[in-house]
Amino acid sequence: MAGRVQKEPIRLDDAVAAALLPPRPVRGHKGTFGKLLVIAGSVDYAGAALLVCTAAGRAGAGLVTLATVESLQPLFAAKVVEATTLALPEDDVEEVDPEEALARILDHDHDALVVGPGLKPSLSMTDLIRGLLGPDEDGEPVPAVLDAEALRSLATVDNWAADVAAHCVLTPHVGEFLRLRAADGVDGAKLGDLVNDDARRLAAARDAARDWGQVVVLKGARTVIAAADGRAAVSPFENPALASGGTGDVLAGTIGALLAQGLDTFSAAQLGVYLHGSAGEAVRARIGDAGLLASDLTCELPLVRRRLAGLADTSAQGR
Length: 319
Known about the structure:
By secondary structure, the protein is α/β, with parallel strands linked by helices. It has 11 helices and 12 strands.
């Protein structure tokens, strides 16, 4: 199968998701279940960082650390309860010093990254993001989820994918996806309807994943997950209740937690999308198509995971 494109995508369901669950050994400890570093948030988008951290904990990460510029660390430290914080050096107020910040991050022990939700746009942040994802003299960079400002920053850099050494999951909505493809010289008009046409969404995500050499999660109804080798999966969920601010931050934290627990990027993206979508369905069943808050999802994530784990146990006993 090596080098061959999988023609039909995986249709995500309970059985597929249950088979992807990372193990939870009964004698495990915090370190066993992964250390996630989240680089997110700004004074105007503090909620994005908090949602990522909460979702990561609810999705099973053992330790979550929020890295933010040092002038905002007291604000975030007062808001996060289970997560710890890491201060990033600044050149100016809310302007990260990319070299000093990179050194501090690389000195921090973590298994995976989430980068982008709620970050303040700046050239210095773009430099930091490129440094985090580029080659590491001490080995391969840790895997990363790239969302929101991380995606917008990369779209400003010519041939950005060639400089990314880390294994990444990119989680763009359609607008961010088109911006990234425009940076590649791809005419968005020729891609067709990426909101309503599922065939075009699948083809576009696969092409981008191949060109970038990364896993792409094209968000929206029936979210598409595509890998660089041609594999793809499609979520079954079409849920208008999820069309509210912050739900993408919950998804980023969920996938990041699964990376920290040792899943590869394609598996983490599939399971993260399914956990997130299933949580949304559970909230929708209670309140309907409108009124869902992103924070409603976080409490549902471990309940969905418990249900899937029960299915996995039943399947294992039946073999």
